Amino acid sequence: MNKSVPRFEHGSRVPGWDTPADLDKDPATIPDPATTPVPEQLRQDIETHMALYPDPRSAALPSLEEAQRVHGWCSPLAITQVAAVMQLTPAYLTSVASFYDMFKMTRKPANDVFVCTNISCSLLGADEFFEAMLAAAEGADVNVASFECLGACDIAPMASVNGEYVGPLDAEDAQRILDDLSAGRPVLPEKQIRYRRTVDPSPPTPPVPDGPEQEFATPDHPRPADTVGLSDADAQTDRVGGSGSSAPIEIPPELPRDGTDT
Length: 262
Ligand code: FES
Fold this sequence. Notes:
The chain has about 260 residues and is α+β, with helices and mostly antiparallel strands.
């Protein structure tokens, strides 16, 4: 059974939608970078994301993700800092952040376990795992939520633990996830999708990494599956910040950069 969805006035799932806009308020303005302190690393990370896209606004999602990582949630301060670096209004970024379940507009626990309970995972025991995960996380600093298909049906039933995809899961894995999170270890390393080279269960399981520093191949550890086929240099380049594929979009110089084709 799913956790009940928090509701605000009139059944809205989004806080603030019941409050009429204050039409007497000054229009939202873009924060002045000169008077808006932003942690240096956060600024650099946002600028790195912006440089990857022809339209810097395309970096809104990864930039909000960076800010949520720093602040723990998309607080008004976090939104203001992203807005100052990206030169957007806080209202624009709030409209983006409030659309996605992965962004939290209220304080949340430090860890997220998103359990897929969609059809493929459900058929293979996701509901039982979800119940076990809720029980294991009782009282811990962990946000457990059920999710629609997370796009990794080949490892069903699966979950995203702080962004790391793990599966196939059984009920006993719930306590192991809790133990790994509490100890600050990589979560279920032998079940992380990044080390699976194929959905075929018959090939031998590659060695397990020792920790997060084993992000890339070493003589003792295999290359993560999502960098297979890339050179060592390209594997590093393609994984800016270690957060997945983020190669710059290359637009041939002869094409206009505004999306038109004339
Ligand atoms: S149904 Fe669970 S990942 Fe697709």
